[in-house]
Design goal:
alpha+beta, Transferase(Phosphotransferase), domain 1, 2 domains, 3-stranded antiparallel beta sheet, single chain, 11 strands, Phosphorylase Kinase, domain 1, globular
Length: about 250
């Protein structure tokens, strides 16, 4: 099995290798594990987060061996890039890739586990969440900073930003589920607005988000709201169509 470590964590290399080898029988499951499985392990007084990616289909097995970077490798590399750019994400420790004659079999991404107070999802589902407006506006500034640094987080969705309240009362934001990103010299207006499309279907939240984004960007608030809301509604429509199609396919299969 190929194993690549962040040099800052070489001192725990043997223990991490052991955790990965015994992943199926040890550790505590974290989250629902619908597609990928995340487990937590205690080490040196810290909690280590190990994500086991779903075994790919035959086409992707071959693709990940010869043509594309695996999700584990991308997660590790993108985390390293984010930290260099001053963007929060749990510290990357290592990634592992297990190949057989066909291609990639299984892979793992290892990082420090970060305990958060909430994710963006709480802001969507709990309108009266404490500090709701403050957190939402600080999150928009965080996203603006991503865009200014040319970072297009393709999975910018409610569960993929961890939020921590700091001692000074401000909030810090940390990206997770990192394997889908693009990096640009400059992000244009349409791409920036489209990047908000997965976050919330609530028009009142889009109004606040567009108001805050307009404080930092050269376009007018009405235009920012229009483009942000347009991207959001298009995403919601496409998502609903996919759900209806899946239900039809399940019906015919049954």
């Amino acid at each position: 099995m190929l194993q690549i470590f962040n040099i800052d964590f070489n001192f725990i290399k043997n223990e991490v290798v052991c955790y990965v080898k015994n992943f199926n029988s040890e550790g505590s499951i974290f989250g629902n594990g619908d597609r990928n499985v995340i487990k937590l392990f205690e080490l040196e007084g810290k909690i280590i987060n190990i994500k086991s990616f779903k075994i790919p289909n035959l086409i992707n097995k071959i693709a990940y061996k010869y043509f594309r970077k695996s999700k584990a490798k991308r997660s590790f590399e993108y985390a390293t890039i984010l930290l260099k750019k001053g963007i929060g994400t749990p510290q990357p420790i290592a990634y592992f890739e297990n190949f057989n004659s066909l291609g990639l079999r299984d892979s793992y991404y290892v990082s420090e586990h970060l305990e958060a107070n909430l994710t963006f999802r709480e802001l969507v589902e709990v309108p009266d969440f404490p500090d709701h407006d403050v957190i939402l506006r600080q999150f928009v500034k965080f996203t603006f900073d991503l865009h200014e640094k040319g970072i297009e987080f393709l999975d910018h969705s409610p569960g993929n930003t961890l939020i921590k309240k700091e001692a000074n009362g401000n909030y810090s934001f940390y990206l997770v589920d990192l394997n889908r990103m693009n990096f640009h010299e400059v992000m244009d207006f349409d791409r920036r607005m489209k990047n908000f499309r997965r976050l919330t279907p609530k028009k009142e939240m889009i109004a606040v988000m567009s108001n805050e984004y307009a404080k930092y960007y050269q376009e007018s608030e009405p235009l920012i709201f229009e483009k942000m809301w347009q991207a959001t509604t298009q995403f919601q429509e496409d998502f609903a169509k996919k759900r209806r199609l899946k239900k039809k396919l399940k019906f015919w299969k049954s």
